[in-house]
Amino acid sequence: MIAEEIKKIHALLPQGVELCAVSKFHPADAVKEAYDAGQRIFGESRVQELLEKVKVLPSDIKWHFIGHLQTNKVRQLIGLTSLIESVDSIRLLELIDKESERAGVVTRVLMQLHVAREETKFGFYPEELLEYFSNRSFENLKATHICGVMGMASNTDDMSRVREDFRKIAATKEEILKIAPDLRGFDTVSMGMSGDWQIAVEEGANLVRIGTAIFGVRNY
Q1: Is the pLDDT at 120 greater than 90, yes or no?
Q2: How confident is the model at residue 166 (pLDDT cuts 50, 70, 90)?
Q3: Residue environment code for 69-107, b if the CB has 16+ CB neighbours within 10 A, otherwise e
Q4: Against a cut of 0.85, is the pTM above it?
Q5: What pLDDT does 72 receive?
Q6: Which is nearest to 116 in space by CA: 89, 152, 159, 67?
Q7: Which of 38, 160, 192, 197 is 20 to 30 A from 10, comparing alpha carbons?
Q8: What are the structural domains, with CATH classification, of the chain?
Q9: Distances (CA, A) of 203 to 95, 112, 165, 172, 212
Q10: 48: helix, coil or strand?
Q11: Is the dihedral of CA 43, 210, 116, 166 positive or negative?
Q12: Residues 52 and 76 sit within 8 Å (Cβ to Cβ)
């Protein structure tokens, strides 16, 4: 079942679009089944769960952290991820940088945008992110590479609103590149989940985060 879904999604993804299989709340053997089907990028949202899976799963897995990262968990996470997708504050970014420098590693991150209607979602408003790059504050980072942006659409059945949200996320990334054209490797737009990833790809996503369509309903 899992292997079939992985193959189905890979067949549908356009060239240049990567799949992050969202494995949070699913057991390690489910991850291994997806791995055996050729999947290498997996998304987790809890540090403890990721730590446990790292111990028992193949070492060439690229782990993406996609949940809200608490500052007191940053040190535990550094050095284990291929990408932290959910940097939602300057304080968190600076702490990741400090801990990465301390550990002697470079951590790749995405800046999380807040464009959805829900106030509960984390992230920067587009204007906050544009200001950060306008001020060239990224030049102060010593051991962190900002690779692009991540965001979620509003939780709604209105697909025109979802499309509008994705368009805003992709447009913000382009605006940042206009502000700071010398940014290197700032090329990732992570957006789109099981129910809307095809719209996300149409609007510029080159990384999609799909969980339910691969693993089924989560085991909370």
Answers
A1: no
A2: very high
A3: beeeebeebbebbbbbbbbbbeebbebbbbbbbeeeeeb
A4: yes
A5: 97
A6: 152
A7: 160
A8: 2-215 (3.20.20.10)
A9: 32, 17, 9, 12, 22
A10: helix
A11: positive
A12: no
